[in-house]
Structures are given as structure tokens and as C-alpha cells.
Amino acid sequence: MRDQTGRDIDYIRISITDRCNLRCVYCMPEEGLRPLSHEEILTFDEIVTVCTLMAQMGLKKIKVTGGEPLVRRDNDVLIGKLKEIPGIEKVTLTTNGILLKDQMAKLAGAGVDAINISLDTLDEKQYQEVTRSDKLKQVLEGISEALKYPHIPLKINCVPVKTQEENLTALAGFAKEHPIHVRFIEMMPIGYGRQFTFCSEDEIRAVLERAYGPMTPYEGRLGNGPSHYYSLEGFAGKIGFVSSISHKFCEQCNRVRLTAEGFLKTCLQYDTGYDLRAMLRSGCEEDELKAAIGDAILHKPLSHHFLEKKEDSEEEMRAMSQIGG
Ligand code: SAM
Ligand code: SF4
């Protein structure tokens, strides 16, 4: 699966539900969004069909996301089915961690290859402000449970909303104490994220170096994507950054997305792609589906234009919870 500029696409992020048990301020409104009905979202069989065809075309890695993927019943069954697809090397998960404690054993049993836990702060009051919930304790219990499975790599993803230094150093401290990589992700001006400014990698690095000493670039690769990492002396895990704005990485983009309702999205910022659900449900042939997927990928947008104010009819209007992050 190669696009017109030669980028190889071997990674898909699949939103398996638009529903979520949190209301992070940069992702969803307090009252939530109109949830899709069960008929509107792709069935597990439809997801497996799409992934099987894409694996025949070169797909290797799948990230299960949402909304909150753990609120969809039998998510572990789906993970098990995705793992069985010939050519798929890794099936990983991104979760807010609230239901992780209860579901970790099932996820490990299904063979999940790695888990990313989204956690923006360790401070209860700030957690309440950012997520509009008081479930920090459950997330921390979920992380403790996940640490009981050392063969499953863990990452914490933080999108800093408040730049208080102690918040950043406390989160990074997780990687000091535990074999968990902590990544700081720049807020993207998508959906409800448009009302926030991003906290840049350089600002965060300055804070962390003041607290923990020099950060040395780590050359190895850890995961599917465009993050880069640093080692710190005495740290069990690494510190990573996904700096889509201050260090744009579109040239290396290897991914597409599948929304819960089956739209194959080829760039986070644009509404370009293909309605695969309509094709799947119209009974079209596998070759037609593959041709549509190939065509969507060929015309993948060259890059995002987050920093440009522009009128663009194709610009994404979905919220991040509907896209999958
Ligand atoms: N509910 C799961 C979770 O929070 O991990 C999975 C879905 S969530 C949409 C996936 C990721 O997108 C989370 O790490 C979240 O912090 C991130 N995210 C949401 N809105 C964002 C934005 N505007 N900019 C950058 N990251 C964002
Ligand atoms: Fe839910 Fe994840 Fe969005 Fe937070 S970031 S509201 S946990 S989908």
C-alpha cells in the first residue's frame, strides 16, 4: 500500500466505538456526542474483513482505539481475531485505563502486543478538570495490573493541557520508577482540541532536564509511529515525544485510520478517504474493496496544515473521539 509520494502504509488505527466513559476537555463536550447506534458501527466481522484485505495488500500493524475501546463488549475477542490474520505482526491498544484492571487478564489472553494508556496528570484535581471525572485511582490500579504482564510493553501518553512543571515531572517520574515509556503528545487543533494551545517538545524537555538531568537521544525504535525517545540516567523507561506540530513528520507517515462507522481516513486533518461500510454492506466483491482501499491510499494528503488558517472544504469536522486519535 504505497501512496503517490512513495510512503508505505502498513499501520491502521481502528476506532471500535465512538463511546467513552470520560469527557476529556480537548476531545469531547461535557454532555457527550450523539452516540452511533449499534447498526451504524462496523461489526467485528466487518473490521476483520477490512483488515484481512488490507493485510493482503501490506498492512502489518493494527492499533485498537476509540472512543474508549474497553467499553465495547468482547473487545478481547476482536483482538484475538485480528491477531490471527495472516501478515498482521502486531495488534496494540490505546485506552484511558479506567477498565484496564478488570480486563487486563482477558487482553493478555487475547495476545495484545502492547498497551498505551492515556493519562495527562497524576494530580486528582487536575485529572478531574481535564477528564471531568474522578477516576484517577482506577487508572492507576489499571497500570499496576498491566505491570504484572512484563511481556506486554506499556506506554503512558500525556497530552499536556496544563503546563505546570510539577505535572510534567511527576508523569515523567513514572518512567523513572517503572519500565514504562512516557510520551508527551502535542495537542492538535482537531475537534475540541482547537481551543487549546500545544505545549511544545522544547518547553517540556527544558522542564524535565531541570528536574532529572540531561536527556540523551535514543536511536532505537519503540512502537509503530513517529515518536522519538530520550534516555535519562536512572530511568527504567524512556521519555518520548510525538511532536506533530513543532517537528512535523508527515513525510514519514505510515498510517491510515478506520472510524467506528467504517470510514477509511487517510489523514488526521482531512475528511478524505472512503466509506468502506457502504461498500461492505452493498455486497461488493473483495477486489472492489481492495481497489477502493488502494485508491484512497494513493491519494493520501501530502501533509497536515495545522498551523495555517485556511478555508478548506475537506477539513475534518469530526471530534477526536470519533476518529480514534
Ligand atoms: N479513549 C482512548 C484514550 O484516551 O486513550 C482512545 C481514544 S483517544 C481519542 C486517543 C488519544 O488521542 C488519547 O491519547 C488522547 O489524549 C488523544 N487526543 C485526543 N484529542 C487530541 C488532540 N486534540 N490532540 C492530540 N491528541 C489528542
Ligand atoms: Fe475519551 Fe480518550 Fe477522548 Fe478522553 S481522549 S474523551 S478518554 S476518547
Order of helices and strands: EHEHEHEHHEHEHEEEEEEHHH
Small-molecule binders here are: S-adenosylmethionine, iron/sulfur cluster
Overall 3D geometry? globular
**Spatial extent as radius of gyration:** 19 Å
Number of strands: 12
Helix content: 25-40%
Q: Sheet bearing the most strands, described?
A: 12 strands, mixed
Indicate the structural class.
Answer: alpha/beta
Describe this structure in words.
- It is globular, with a radius of gyration of 19 Å.
- The protein has 325 residues and is of the alpha/beta class.
- The chain has helices at residues 44-57, 75-83, 100-110, 124-131, 136-146, 165-177, 201-212, 276-281, 286-298, 320-323; strands spanning 11-15, 61-65, 90-95, 114-118, 154-158, 180-185, 215-218, 228-232, 239-242, 255-258, 263-265, 273-275.
- Helix 2 packs parallel to helix 3 (100-110).
- The chain has a twelve-stranded mixed β-sheet.
- The protein is 31% helix and 17% strand.
- It contains ten helices and twelve strands.
- Iron/sulfur cluster is lined by residues 20, 22-24, 27-28, 66-68, 96, 118, 320-321.
Which descriptors would you attach to this protein?
325 residues, alpha/beta, 10 helices, 31% helix, globular, binds S-adenosylmethionine, binds iron/sulfur cluster
Question: Brief description of this entry?
Answer:
The protein has about 325 residues and is of the alpha/beta class.
